[in-house]
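> @MW can you paste both from yesterday?
MW: sure, first one:
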Amino acid sequence: MITELKKSEFHKCKNLLHAQGQLEAKAVVEGVNPGRIFVDNIDAPTSGVIWLGNNDGFFFIGNERNKKFNNELNHFVDTVITPEAKKVELSWFEGIGNHHKWDDTIKSVFANRRLGSWKQRVYTLEKNDYKSNFNLMIEEGYDIVEINEELFKNRNKSINNIDFLHSKIADSWSSASSFFRKGIGYCVTYKNKIVSICISSFVVDNVHCIAIETLEEHQGKKLAQKIALAYVEDCMRNNFIPYWDCMESNKPSIAVAERNGFRMKFHYLGYDFKLE
């Protein structure tokens, strides 16, 4: 039977994580970022699935050949995940293997569903590869601002859309205080509005996963590239390793990463199907 672990038991899954696997899965197991973990055996898990707290995917960890676990997955999705997903208005299951051997298992287990797939790229930037020779100047009227607690609290009401920042942090962090203890971030402001945000979405040790969002009406002005550079500069000063995870089809995101000197570390596949 697939059973949910308590947060205090997440450490039991550390040995199930692939050394070169995704940062998001590690961050949940380490207890840095919120999420839920379901395993085959509470006392000695050998296979499991991590549900990211930001509802941005389910990561399969451990032994991909665990027949008992695999045979229960469809029933588990239908009876446990689907009802819980409806509560948070999640209509798609996005499954990702923590290592490539899970790919065949996922395709086999969910063969009876209308399974789609996509490719992801993961980039990182090491300090030795970084060359600080970029121009941070942006279009007149826009300003790059560090995200701190004073900005977040917005006591003077100087930001009209502070909910944009609040929701972006809440996507991946259990609390704002947790974000400010572990993460860093920058935003672009324009006429008392935050129009672009770049923050640490998941963190493990000194590795920071980057999340960027720019309001649609302000896209096309290279704001994402500029704000990412400010974020990267901060990482370099603090000996952090920025980690960039994006869809292979997201050419603008790839362009921003590569222009800022990132190198592709690995790629992986994701699979999805509609939750009925």
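MW: second:
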Amino acid sequence: MNIYRKVLKLMGTRYSDHNVKHLKSTTDEHTFNEYVFPDMKIGFEIHRMHVRSAKSTWYYPSHEHPLYEINLVTRGKQVFYIQGERYELEEGDLVLIRPGDVHSSSSLENSKEGFNYFCVHFNIDDKLLLPYFKKTKDTFYHANSMLTRSIRPLLDRLVNFSQQSKINFTDKMNLHSIMFELLAITVSCLEKDQQKLGKISEQTFKVAYQIAEEIDQLIRKPSHEDDILESVVRIEEIANHLDISVSYCNKVFNKVFDMSPRQYVTFRKLNDSKSLLVQEKYSIEQIAFMMGYHDSSHFSRQFKRWTGLSPSQYRETQHSIPEMGES
């Protein structure tokens, strides 16, 4: 059963030992060999993937977004400020930016030459990929780093897609294939750098994932209480449903996700709200309903508690960031 648990750990798969054993017992007498691969569930979205040639005067001001971002320099030098830290990228270097990281970018100070870069923004909606990205503290990856060398061929293929004027259905399927492989390799590299994750038992991963699944199912149920976090998601009820103690529930969740279940509720609600707000096709009222709030004013009050901005103000900031000196 090791292969099942390994797939679960990396891809967020849920399986039942009882079901697998039952399938085996009912088919063994009619087969010589059988390999049953478990069901899989993984989700991601690609946003604003592009290649750019920037002038020496180019500058992108400080901002944040609810997406992961990989930025690769393909020529020249680029400067990043991420969470107050300065990074100078040369050809082949990349940065991995997490949701909510405040960052800005520009050409190298006093440089007379511009630079080229490739950038892809993506969103991962998979609970067992989250620990690898959240626990990784590194942001800058040198061209000769294990991660950069491993994913550079895939990034180059994405660059080729970004330069195509038209993309057909087959191209889109190939693009998804590349992204799946890129995520898998990235997780593999990050796992090798994180001994703490490697020491966590797969049973602990499984229980933490089940808790997160319970939270996600409850998180968007409508509420009429002022404190939606308390009224909709009660950790005691989740622990009782899974037949575990509250203390054990908090312990295993913290071990895997590096946050408490209640912090995870806020994390998911805030990040999901931000992701919806950057999409113009949804009104504030629609987003409030999708996030489980009984009216938009309730949603707006909670969002402002989290960010200091109203939903409409946050949406405006995401669509009004000027690029300076763009070529």
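> thanks! Confidence is low (pLDDT under 50) at residues 1-23, 225-231.
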